[in-house]
Give the backbone structure.
Amino acid sequence: MLDKLNQAMEYIEQHLEGTVDIAETARIAATSEYHLRRMFSALSGMPLSEYVRRRRLTLAGAEVLAGPDTLLEIAVRYGYGSGEAFARAFRAMHGVGPGEARRTRAGLDSQPRMSFRLTIEGNSSMRYRIADRPDFTVVGFRARVPLVHSGPNRSIIDFVRGLDKPALAALEKLADQEPDGILSVCDDLDPSRAEGTELDYYQGVVTSAPAPEGTVALAVPAGTWAVFATSGPAPEAVQELWRDAFTQWFPSNPYRSRPGPEILRTRLSADGTRADAELWLPVEPERSK
């Protein structure tokens, strides 16, 4: 898996001048485009599209400082249709425009080329199971919120705090399938998974009952799920569960993620210091290459 991922990174490097075809990158990595984006984000801490952008602007920055080419020639070489678009992107990364950088020999930022290596971790096992589920329905309250990669998501916190507690308690009684109880469900994420892009966030239950007034229903097609369980300090145990699923479990098992909602069930201790959590991720078997 890591060898193929590094081959994909080499492909990206060779096509920074021109077009980086993400579908071809996924083919080289022997996985789906969806799983490649998800894996890369989990392993590197940034969306794949952001990495490509930053690598291009790193190379462009070196040419701005050193080369005889005009700024427009450099802009076009790295995929920008106009000098203005290039200048905006250049300033967003480097903190200075390309013209000023060339005149003043300003210091620039650099995005190092990434490669992936095996490190010996995994000294503790992960508890998981594979579940094949028929189609089911999530019923609950929904908000459109921004994606936050690190730290608390204030939009989700404010949404949950604003929910009517009696209505939520009544909703919980409708849960009649697993995963049981009140769930946190993320759906309709942007394929780039870039910071600030939006997703649908639900507080709801899996139920066969009709959606009560004021709630919405999310139909989930039949499919296979990887179900991870953990117990430990809150919120660290839950955050580490997400991380370990993508950085340890997927590279070690013959599955890849597929489009679909991501479901988290959390049960806090009475004092709120510990959590029992179960994470449901939609998966499919990796095809042999």
DSSP finds ten helices and nine strands in the chain. The radius of gyration is 22 Å. Residues 48-66 form the longest helix (19 residues).
